[in-house]
Every structure is written in C-alpha cells, then in structure tokens.
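Troubleshooting: if your tokenizer reports a length mismatch, compare your output against this known-good record of 290 residues.
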Amino acid sequence: MSQSANNLAAKREQLLQLLGSFGRVAVAFSGGVDSAVVAQAARLACGDRAVAVTAVSASLATGEREHAEAVARQIGIRHQVIETDEFSNPDYLRNAPNRCYFCKTELYTQLESLAPELAVDVLVNGANLDDQGDYRPGMQAAREHQVRSPLIEVGINKAEVRALAKDWNLPVWDKPASPCLSSRIAYGLEVTPERVARVDQAEHFLREVCGLLEFRVRHEANDLARIEVPADELPRLVATDIRRKVSDRLHELGFKYIALDLDGFRSGSMNAVLPLVELQMGGSLPPLPH
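Known-good structure output:
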C-alpha cells in the first residue's frame, strides 16, 4: 500500500473515531460528495444514532432532493427532509457577499430546534479542508451554532473526500459540485424565487440538450445570462445549431442578453468581484473564516 493510501486509511479511521465519539449525530446532507462521505462515516460509526437532514427551498436545483434521497437510501442512514425559509429574510434577499451566512443560519437554527425530535446531540456538516481557502461566510454560521466539521478536524481535503467516496462505492464520488442556485445570482442583485427558477430551467436545458456536466449559468444585472463551460466545450456552444437553441431557450426564460464567458468554467467566479461589491454595499463583508 502506498504512503498516500496509508495516510488516507489513517484519516478514515480518525474520522470514524471522531464521529463515534459524538454519540448521536445529525448530518447537514445535500447529497453532494462531501456530505455523503460524512453521512457514510456517521452511519458506520454511529449506526442508527445517525441521521441525515436535507434542506429544501427555492434555491435547490431540480432533481437534487431526489438525488439526496437516493444516496441516503444507498448509505442506509435515516433521512429527513426539512423546508427552510431563507427567502423570507431581507438580509438573504439583499444578496450581499455574506448571503450564505443567512442561509446557513436558517438551516442550523432549524436543526437545533429539531435536535430533540431527531434524538441527536451534535450537528455536523460536510466542509472539507479546502473550504478554508475560499470566502465562506457559512462557516461563520456553523461556528455560532456549534456545528462541527469533522472532515476539517481530521484534515481531509477535497481529493481525499472523493477517494473515500470511491472506496465506499458512493455514486457521487465524481459528482461535480452543485452549490445552491442563489450562488448564480450576481452580488447586489436581489435573490428572488423567479430568478433562481430561471437559472434552474436554463441549466436544466443546457444539461439535457447539450450534455454538459460541469458548468454554470450566472444571472447578471440587466437580465444577462453569463454561461460558463469548460474551455474545451466553448467551440461546441458557438456551433450554429447549438447556439441558436441555447439563445432561443434562454430568451424564452426571460434573459435579454446571453453571453458565453471566454475564460471558461471557474467555481466561485462570482467572488472575483468581492472588493468592488464591498465598496458598493458599504464595506459590510464579514471577516474571512479562520
């Protein structure tokens, strides 16, 4: 066994021991690879004392709830779906760069109130070591609500998460990241159910018609759709037949302008404008999580 495999095996055992020490555990479970690995580990370490909780709202992309339910069934973990109400919070709708703080606060507040009903003592999330290198206001909410991040505590990064998921035969081991639909709305542009639904339908179309796997439709101001695809997919999107289909469908959805980003797909590309947004919105950004 290679050194890297030995290291991963050691971290896996540390993860199981840590979760086992928590006793009764609720996993904030999106069905993505990070939370799936934590849910699998919680199931192995805690058995029936573990539960996965999936939050649904207008910001959840089509099919993600059903996907989370299927992954939970495969893991064999108790699963509960709750509805969150972040869209009733004006601070969330305002869509400052700390929007995610208000979403996670809503989620963790609900989980805290449900803890007696769920029969759990500790709340955990799927944040991994690499998440500490980006602007993640949701991590602040986790700290405020004493939500543990076992992957970070054990020192597991994204590549190791995917390796663990593959070892455990989880179908999401190579699933692209799928952040909430609100993350596609440009900072400072109000988040509304109508806008996230427009993005959802546009991405569903690109996925079904163009066969794209990892991409984003960014909703910019003035009803502009900025499409990010991997650089090697750019020629296919500008081919006449595909370009016309995409243009026609996105116009039908209410976008006035459709742009293809020549820099290609970049996860978290909205954060490139954080300094400018901070100035425009009165310097209200919270500090980066440590």
